[in-house]
Structure formats: C-alpha cells, structure tokens
Amino acid sequence: MLTKLLKYDLKYMIRNMSVFYILAIFFALVTRLLSLPEQSIMIGILTKISSGCVIAMIGNIVINTIMRSWIRFRDSFYKDEAYLTHTLPVTKNALYSSKLIQTLIFFIIGFLIIIVSLLIAYYSKENWEGITNYIHTITTGLNMSTAFFIIMFLLVCFLEIFNAIQCGFYGIILGHRRNNLKLGFSILFGFIAYLIAQSMVLGIVYAYGFIDPTVMELFKTATINIDVTAFKILAILSCLAYAFIISLMSFLCKRLLNKGVNID
What we know:
The chain is 84% helix and 0% strand. The protein has 264 residues and is mainly alpha-helical. It has two domains: 11-123; 142-264, no CATH class. The longest helix is centred in the N-terminal third of the chain and has 38 residues, at 41-78.
C-alpha cells in the first residue's frame, strides 16, 4: 500500500514540477547554442537573458520542491482529498512516510536536473578547470581531500533543506490542530520548530566542544587559524545532528497524526 500511496504522490509532483525541469533544460540548451557563434552585442544580450532564465529555473526547482511538498502534505491530510486519504487501509505512519519519501525522491531529481542544466549551459574546459582549481585551493588550505569537502558540503545543504521541509510538516500538523487561523499558526509553528532544530544542532556541536577542545575553539576565536581536524569533526557532527533531529521530528509528527486529524 505504501508503494501505491507513493505512486500518487509522485504523479502529483511530476505534474507540478515537470514544467520547471523542462524549462531549465530548455534555457540551458538555448544558452549553450547562443554561446557557440561569434558574439555580437545582440547575441550577448540574448545569452545573458537566457542565462538568467537558467538561474531562475534552478531557483524555482528548489523553491517549488519545498512549497509543493508542503502543499501536498496539507491537501492530503487536511483538505478535501483527506476524506479519501483517511479511509485508506493504511496507518498514519505509512501516510507520513510516503510524504517523506516523495520529498526525498524529488530533491534528488531536482538536484540532478540542476547539475545537468548547469553542465549544458556553462560547461567548458576553462570553466571546469577554474572551478576545480578554486575548490582545490580551498581544500589545500584546509588540508582535506576534495572529495570529502564536496560530499560534506552537499550533505549538510541537503540535510538542512530536508530538515526545513519537515519542520514545515510539523508546523502544518500543529497549526491544523487549532480551531482558526490554521495557515497562520502553521507558518508560525513551522518557523519556531525550525529555530528549535537549528538551536539543537548548535547545542549538540557546542556540547561536543566540552569533549574536544579543538571544536570548542571554533566558538571562542574569530581567527581562521584553527586545527583543520576541528572543521572535519564539525562537518561530520553537523550531519549526525541533523540526521538525529530529522528522525526525532519524524517521530513527533507521526505521534501527533496518530492522535487524530481534524479535516477542514
């Protein structure tokens, strides 16, 4: 049943997100084609416009993945669609898990589309060497491998955004337990949950600092001449903290849903 639920959620997201995927690839191709002929003032202007559209579509992919995940969650649990959702022979836990998996899948799809669009629009030997040299300069200064730096950077960004989405889910659940102003309270509770989650990450890192003095130095000094090991520990610890908070938030959301749902 979870597979069937996920199928309908994915159809909804594909229907709403495919236009942004197509436009991102389209403008990336246009940008690439415009960069091939000898440049003139008019071609240069068109190239900049098309390039701006690529960036705009990338932003839309990220923003709409987040917003559509929240809208889908609200509609499935609290709007007209909820009358069917809650008659299905599945648990609230399975319903919630479907929404989380759907969000994860479309984050990965969106990320891949963004990477492909950027490569189509801007890839060249010179640009690639410039990026790799820049990253290599950073990693050399930090005395860490390039692969570790890139993986940790992407992982922290992913967990940060995924955590924000789930805080939104939590806010929607709490907001719809109110009798009125449900949307306003959903936004308020979601924002508060996000602030608490961020504080917890910072608190976990700070608490670890009492065990490892090199990490504590990150809180005490404004200079950048700090043991590189501390930055590596900070990255790993932040990922673990986010994973813990995401798991905790998921548990709390499922627990609240199992207490009952008030459909609008």
